[in-house]
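lol forgot to send this yesterday, sorry. struct tokens for the thing we talked abt
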């Protein structure tokens, strides 16, 4: 199947296009809102999917069979854009139970399912490096069977919608009212101390503990997204507005990129964080402190080893490499240490095998992964849901692009869940670890008119 691909003007851009398409069912925006020369090169927008898959870890084999019906409907190609239609959505952290039986924390409305994937027969794609835009229309039905006439009609529909006036910009902001925290400072620091005991006892080397803050807000999800985008532009920004749950994300972390044509996989674990400072000298000092921190570098290297081990399960062992180790990356609100791990899938493996071998990401679980996840289920009082899962796409050609769902808030009705966490090692200081969660949550809470 060869999709219909029509180039259209680069403007008005992803957000304005989203506003013109937002009245359609299940609109989605995956936006490269920063770093156009690298991870933020591509943005995608779509709506009106032709099928919906509500995920349940207990039924993952059935879900896989459904997904594989549609994969490889397009021949893998190096042509742009890399995603021309397929599944868009989110995978919840607790979906990890599908791959390794693990205990999980109690669920609530923010984690009622293990994720959702929607099958999109068309997508708008922007290349921010080349400043180009395309309508890609596959013409597929829910079984992946393509029809060229349908593809042409759907592409024309999208072109007409882009000519419409956008929906009015969200106006009027409320002050987010905190309702509940899973941890106060004392209980979070006690949980950090307990994790340090596990490390000292040899159970784990590191684990990524998190807390959740639930707030009440009357704000429109698009308004929240735009505010967060201005405060913390990210290479993997996302807005998914669905009836049961909306997600707003400013993730800086690439979980997986798979090019089906070459089989090349890339993961970019983020470990090590310092806040930005308004004073330039102080900002440089914080960045230097991070790049020279033995604790943060050790934490990053541990997770790199975990990612390498996960990839070895489905990749050619000789292909697994670490071209970048502990690079300092600076974002609008924080500094991070980032590494890059690459590999080539072994023959007979596909995107779903890769997902089973690596999900959830090592950077938000710990090492060893399974033991760390079991301990986190003991110390975190509620399920994570979308947080620390993944957001992104799986293409009809078998390619895949997923972010780690950090810096992500879930909106259920008028309630918003904001999570933040950090890696705990033997060298962790409980007070510093609690402060790190506030630093990471600051931009999200500010977008809700609240303070940490």
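and heres what i got for the seq, position by position
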């Amino acid at each position: 199947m060869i999709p219909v691909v029509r180039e259209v003007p680069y403007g008005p851009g992803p957000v304005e296009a989203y506003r013109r398409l937002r009245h359609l069912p299940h609109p989605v925006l995956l936006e490269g809102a920063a770093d156009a020369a690298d991870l933020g090169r591509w943005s995608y927008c779509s709506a009106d999917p032709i099928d919906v898959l509500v995920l349940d870890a207990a039924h993952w084999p059935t879900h896989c069979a459904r997904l594989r019906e549609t994969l490889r409907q397009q021949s893998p190609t190096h042509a742009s854009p890399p995603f021309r239609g397929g599944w868009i959505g989110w995978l919840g952290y607790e979906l990890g139970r599908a791959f390794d039986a693990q205990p999980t924390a109690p669920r609530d409305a923010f984690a009622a399912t293990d994720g959702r994937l929607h099958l999109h027969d068309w997508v708008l794609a922007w290349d921010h490096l080349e400043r180009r835009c395309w309508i890609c229309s596959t013409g597929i039905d829910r079984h992946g069977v393509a029809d060229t006439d349908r593809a042409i009609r759907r592409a024309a529909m999208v072109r007409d919608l882009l000519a419409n006036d956008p929906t009015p910009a969200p106006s009027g902001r409320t002050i987010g009212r905190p309702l509940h925290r899973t941890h106060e400072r004392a209980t979070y620091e006690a949980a950090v101390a307990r994790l340090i005991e596990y490390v000292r006892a040899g159970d784990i080397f590191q684990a990524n503990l998190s807390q959740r803050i639930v707030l009440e807000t009357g704000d429109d999800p698009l308004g929240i997204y735009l505010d967060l985008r201005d405060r913390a532009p990210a290479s993997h920004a996302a807005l998914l507005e669905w009836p049961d749950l909306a997600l707003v994300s400013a993730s800086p972390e690439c979980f997986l990129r798979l090019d089906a044509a070459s089989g090349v996989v890339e993961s970019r674990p983020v470990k090590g964080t310092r806040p930005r400072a308004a004073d330039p000298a102080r900002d440089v000092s914080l960045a230097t402190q991070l790049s020279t921190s033995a604790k943060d570098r050790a934490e990053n290297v541990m997770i790199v080893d975990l990612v390498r081990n996960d990839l070895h399960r489905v990749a050619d062992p000789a292909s697994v490499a670490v071209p970048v180790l502990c690079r300092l990356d600076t974002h609008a609100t924080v500094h991070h240490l980032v590494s890059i791990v690459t590999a080539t899938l072994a023959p007979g493996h596909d995107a779903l095998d890769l997902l089973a071998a690596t999900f959830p990401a090592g950077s938000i679980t710990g090492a060893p992964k399974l033991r760390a996840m079991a301990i986190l289920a003991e110390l975190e009082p509620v399920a994570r849901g979308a947080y620390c899962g993944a957001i992104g796409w799986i293409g009809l050609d078998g390619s895949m692009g997923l972010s780690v769902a950090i810096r992500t808030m879930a909106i259920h009705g008028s309630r918003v869940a904001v999570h933040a966490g950090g890696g705990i090692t033997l060298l962790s200081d409980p007070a510093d670890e609690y402060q790190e969660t506030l630093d990471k949550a600051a931009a999200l809470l500010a977008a809700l008119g609240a303070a940490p």
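The radius of gyration is 21 Å. anyway ping me if u want another try
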